[in-house]
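In the previous chapter we treated chains in isolation. Here, by contrast, the input contains two separate entities that must be folded as one system, with a combined length of 319 residues.
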Amino acid sequence: MTHIGYLLAGWGIALVVLGLYGCGVVRRGRRLSRSVPEGERRWMTAKGESQGG
Amino acid sequence: MADGRTSTGSSGSRLLGVITLVGLASLLLFAFVLTEPDVRLHPTTGEKFGQFDAVRLIYLHVPMAVLTYAAFLTCAASSAFYLVRRGAWWDVTAHASAEVGTVFCGLVLVTGSIWGRPVWNTWWEWGDVRLMTTLVLFLLFTGYLALRRTAADPQRQARRAAAVALIAVLDIPLINRSVEWWENRTLHQQSTLAELKIEDLTLFTLMLGFLVFGLVFAWLMLHRFRVGWLEQAQARHDVTLAIAERQAEMETLDVGAAIGESGGEK
């Protein structure tokens, strides 16, 4: 296989960055979920807002 | 795994996550094992040319570029709806798609540069219109995200961000048409599907790349949207708490004053 270093760098950087970003988003969600009252923890059940705008 | 009530996860998002991981494993199998490198023979000299194994980066780079467009177009459309209808749903969607789109756009620039080194013999070309307009798009949406972090009235901040998104998205048609409008000022090929003359398994793998990175995008958007919604809920909760504390404080002062007055009368 040619260009193995470029392939590993390209795919490796992309998958690691997407993985870290995904983990970061999930962690932010968990932290926020704990500090928001139970009735408003999930976007589907938030009070006082309509989902369509 | 965290309880659905204390995370942004749900049974649907977990199923989507599992399908995405299986899809990523399949894509790696097709991209690295089952497809052939891009090797062509020159019609007159018979010499080998093409991208060789560097073509395997295309299965990653092209789908992410298309999803970058999709993310920023979603951001612009949501921003327009927000300006017209003023609903929090649209604002949260715009912010989420801008953030996910910026991550994808950054990766498009990095993977494109890594692909360009073996194929074009350069990491970066400052005079290349496609590269520069993509860099400008990345910087515009980085600015958008910086604007969203400034401490200001949330509604004014959302209106300003929406205006920035509607201006920034005008760069997308320039990027898309740049290889035709300025064909002498770009190293970039016109269309991957046309240029590589790909077919059969190579074409299938590229389509699989679109599907799998589309699933990654959907999973990230779902969770990022819920984070944005929780941020707004927390802000509302903080305001409600502050008002309640202030009211309790005022009631204590009123009671104290009333006791003081009744004591003075005696």
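Chain B has a mean pLDDT of 90. Helices of chain B lie at 11-34, 58-85, 88-120, 129-148, 154-168, 171-181, 192-195, 200-265. Compare these points with the single-chain example from earlier in the chapter.
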